[in-house]
Structure formats: C-alpha cells, structure tokens
Write a structure and sequence with these properties.
alpha/beta, Rossmann fold, 2 domains, 6-stranded parallel beta sheet, two-stranded parallel ribbon, 8 helices, globular
C-alpha cells in the first residue's frame, strides 16, 4: 500500500494513523506515519489531539501509557455503533483460557471471529479496528506499550484493567476506568 501511495506523483496524499497502535509488524506491516521521513520525505506532521471515540478518562489512560496528549470526549455518550463487552488477552492460549473461565462462571462467552452471544474474548491484535462499550484488558506482556495502547483505545465508555497494568503504568481508577485482579470480580459487569 505504501508503494502505491509513493507512486502517486500527481496527487496530494494525506495519511492518518497512530504509531502507538502499529502492532502488526510481526506480520510484515510497516508504519508509514512513524517512519514518514523514510517513506515520504518532507512530509508535514499535523497532530490530532481530540478524539470523539472514547471518554476523556480513557484518553487519560492512553496518554499515561503512550506519553501522548490526546483529549477524549466529555461526558456525552458515544453515538458510534459498538459491541457491548469484550475481554482482551495477549495470546490465543489466554483467549481459550478466558473463554473457559467465563463459561465456568456461567457467563456466555465466545471467541471473536466465531458466532455467539454474550461476551466476546479476543487477542488485542484481532480486536484492532473494533470498538466496544466495555473493554476488559487482561494481563499483557511487559514492555508492550503499543499493545496496551491499542487495547485501551478499543473502549468507548468503560475500561477495566488488570491490576498489573494499573501498577505498571501508575494508573488511577475513575468512574470510567476500574481495576480488577480476577474475572470473578467482574461478574456484575459481564452478566
């Protein structure tokens, strides 16, 4: 795709993206925004600092993880059509374990990409591009700033972070951001 854009010599090109969420490098994808001087020499950067995707308190978490200065939307609820609830994990193995644990707790749960009703469970990579009213982020690998930022930015209204993430990034709870240690603590939220 970058090659096609580079060959458009008589067109103005505008790239929009977030290098903090460039998490698919293992699949061969490139980050033309973060590497714009290599791909588009002389390109200007115009930072976008306002998002209407997620609540301001969720933006504060994103900022703490990435050192960005993004402003989220105020109290008014998002009008975007989004799913209800998703649990995000680091690996497919953890997804399988979370689905099993939720089903053992009598919660309807299914893996993203399959059909089902209830709570979706996915890796952060597979959730990229989606948005949910409530996002539960399980433990993630250490030093995974981009994965953590991507996971956080999937939430629209409510974000539940594993206590290890709260501690790692020195985050505080708020009315839209809460911590948890075990999925059993979230039974009222997940039902």
């Amino acid at each position: 795709m970058v090659k096609i854009l580079q060959e458009c010599t008589d067109a103005s090109i505008v790239l929009a993206g977030d290098s903090n969420q460039a998490i698919n490098g293992f699949m061969g994808s490139v980050d033309p925004i973060g590497n714009r001087d290599s791909y588009f020499p002389g390109a200007k950067m115009l930072p976008l600092s306002q998002t209407w995707r997620y609540h301001n308190q969720i933006a504060d978490v994103f900022n703490a993880i990435t050192a960005e200065r993004c402003i989220g939307r105020p109290e008014r609820p998002s009008t975007a059509t989004v799913g209800e609830t998703i649990v995000l994990c680091a690996t497919n193995k953890e997804v399988d374990a979370a689905v099993k644990q939720l089903q053992n707790l009598k919660i309807n749960a299914y893996k993203r990409g399959t059909t089902g009703e209830g709570v979706q469970v996915s890796t952060v990579h597979k959730a990229k591009g989606g948005g949910w009213h409530t996002v539960v982020v399980m433990r993630l690998r250490r030093n995974s700033v981009k994965v953590a930022a991507t996971a956080v930015s999937r939430a629209r209204e409510r974000l539940y972070l594993h206590y290890s993430l709260m501690k790692e990034y020195n985050l505080r709870t708020s009315s839209h951001v809460r911590r948890f240690g075990d999925l059993r603590e979230l039974l009222p939220v997940l039902r």
